[in-house]
# Entry
Amino acid sequence: MGLAQAIDDFIADAGDDLASIQNLCEAHRQKRNIDSRQKLLQHEFHGIQADQVLANLISDPEYVDIRNNLCVWARPTQALIELVDFIQGELQMIAPGLWIAPASWLHMTVVEIVHSQPDDVVKQTVIQLLQCLSALVNLVLEHPVVLGRPQLNYDDATVTMTFVPIGEREYTYLHLRRDIANICTEHGVEVGSRYFTTSSHITIVRFVDSAGLETRASRKAWVEKIEGLNSELREKYWRRNLGEGPSKAGQWMIGAERGLEVREGRLWYGGGETVQYGKAVSTDVP
# Structure
């Protein structure tokens, strides 16, 4: 099943209702944290999954990541970047064996069109999509979407900042992902996304070794730190609609400050090149 159909089925299961979509997305990410907590704290835990490719890139300037991707990206707002920076610092105090995603590399993959392919495959796909690149990055101008309720999700390899749809618009982030995938399909490119239907996250740290988390007690402290940060996020940044709450970091209009981008190349950690920029979305859109 293609990504667009999978998302459409999810929307249909929710009755194409904003509150139901939000509740299902919320349930999915809460379950992921429950599962991760159980895994990290089990006595037979098999260890942190260090990213060996990233570790090689850090230790060896000559090392080449051969995975080439083509994606539609959304860049976080400055308020979100500052929030991520604070959280990264808090996490690094507990686990020094972290790779901290640089601010300029922070992104959310809206749709992963091609992943882990040779460079020539990616470039050929770009050629196929030339006529619709502008449509891919500017769809949010016609259909503004808002995410909010920032929360940390974690596993044995990464920590991400995740979001769910908020606001009053029935057209949600899931609708946007579906429609971008459909545009690609209409131009002969079947989206090869690794990400599940409700995915809306920014990867903020990755493990390159297990320093600081070798014992169950240290992993328990790690989990409790993340849970404490999530309590702070709920208290300070969650709100139901735009305009509520004390901070801009609690809501994210996708494409605000910087428009969407189509990126190609070695994108896994935040690199690559932009092949199409979109226009920034006005935050004054009703």
Notes: The chain has a mean pLDDT of 92. Residues 3-277 form a domain with the Cyclic Phosphodiesterase; Chain: A, fold (CATH 3.90.1140.10). Helices lie at 3-13, 18-41, 52-59, 78-94, 119-128, 133-142, 173-186, 216-237. The beta strands are 68-74, 98-100, 108-117, 146-154, 158-165, 201-207, 251-253, 261-265, 273-277.
